[in-house]
Write a structure and sequence with these properties.
By secondary structure, this protein is an alpha/beta fold. It is built from seven helices and 14 strands. The protein has one domain: Metallo-beta-lactamase, Chain A. The chain is about 20% helix and about 30% strand.
Length: about 250
Amino acid sequence: MRITTLGTSHGDSTYCRFNSSTLYESGDGLYLVDCGSPCEALLWRKNKDITRIRAVFCTHMHDDHAGGLTEIIKILVKYADPKNHTDIYLTEPGAEESLKNWLHAMRVYPREEVVSFKLTEAGKVYSDENITVSAYPTEHVTPSRGRANSYSYVIEEGSKRIMHTGDLCADFHDYPKILFEEYFDLLVCESTHYDMVKAQPQFARSRVGRLIFNHVGNNWHGDGESKLFEICKGLPYPVALAHDGDEYDL
């Protein structure tokens, strides 16, 4: 599997980072976790065929994680590949209707044979011959009506397992506890909404082979990178800080 951190910023774009979007490639399939703008442009610049995207998994419906969906859907519809279908996972009831209304306002009309909209629920949400994806609730967006509105995702390719946390709460209580119980080859974790020093015991307990920080806060930009690595130097596995366009193989 190849992982490309297309956009790695926090809630706003910065001088060196765009909004959150991460590309996972397995077999002949492309899969996105989050789709912040300008995801479409960043995919083209990486010479990725957007019409091969099989699924988009939004961690939550904040603009910096879902604001690029309309551009992706436009390309999927405009250059539809009859051999491909794309499932788009939205995390809140009502999001599909709102998204379609905005698409229609821009004269983009998604067709069911090209794009399907799904409501993310806890548990296994997607599977094909390349990967299986499961959703784990977080509380970054306040739960409502007895259901979660934000999620982490576990991506499995054969025996390889990745945890992609999405955004977490400031007190870190929704950091996925499964990381203490089961092994993951890779943890992709946001690095904006919590105290990095206070989170170190949780990271140290996590059974992971490698950690990549994305959704990068301003304090970890530029000269702040060295401070982040100093804080994390005691962790028992390699740590990387993602930049826009970085590529990792698993």
